[in-house]
């Protein structure tokens, strides 16, 4: 290892792929000997077991009665500066431009420019928030003033440049999976609880936000299950869950669909499945499809955002236009009926997840960025 770094990490700790990526990255950096300080409003949900190199600092928000909105952003900025000073941090790596990068830049002003700020864009901070005229200039400011900016796909880099007219270099750092956690698990006995031996299992995991188009999952499954005995597992919860339940009921498919709710052991559940469905309207990367890939499960997804950078059509899964559930169902049937094709795709999935998107590679890319901004190449 070059120098041991002291790194502060801020993310949304309780939900979503960005929190998972930030937490897993912190754990891997700590394993490599760096000192990692998570500075968030609650304990990151994937933090797990104790590690001597990992520290957690909770941001407490002042709810003084005159504040209509408790000022979380100011409390975070102040905490970032405090921790940076107390612990002698080299840099803050913040996930999401708004508000985290802005808070980190305030902390940098308070502490001095030796404290570097690395910002990672995950998607909705650009694909949703950068369309909001009231936030656009602030996001551009956060990006331009960060010492380095990374994004999770080429597509997100392109969209950031287009939407915000940014010239500054943006580094690509794909999402990654820890192959010690995501691999095909032996789930033979658990599988019996979900499906009969001749039934196939399809799975969808998300936060059930409208952008995930969860009803397309139901329609795709309905078409597949007409021809192939199969089951569907829904993992996660969110605003569109009740719509999904209604549609499943309407189609008379309740006995074939299991709603698992929020689950921790995603690798175990993924290993049960034959196919993952991800028909999102927009997806800057699609971490969950990578997690599936690492468990040897091909994904049928929409041809949206950064998904084609992850899934190679016909090799590690299949892509269809957004909303084209007939095509998605046809691809599912194609794979489920042809064992040889399925096996080839499964092997390609495992290979791609373990090479292009492996934890060692991407962690090293982030480390290089840290050393670069610190002038310690
Ligand atoms: O997909 C979500 O709704 C959660 C969101 C988040 O903020 O955690 O995920 C975004 O970041 C992930 C990690 O980089 C990406 O894999 C997801 O594709 C991205 N989601 C969207 O772009 C909609």
TrEMBL record:
Ranges for domain Glycosyltransferase subfamily 4-like N-terminal: 16-178
NCBIfam families: thiol_BshA
GO molecular function: glycosyltransferase activity
Record-level GO BP terms: bacillithiol biosynthetic process
Lineage: Bacteria, Bacillati, Bacillota, Bacilli, Bacillales
Superkingdom as given in the UniProt entry: Bacteria
Descriptive protein name: N-acetyl-alpha-D-glucosaminyl L-malate synthase BshA
Pfam families, alphabetized: Glyco_transf_4 (PF13439), Glycos_transf_1 (PF00534)
Domain Glycosyl transferase family: 191-348
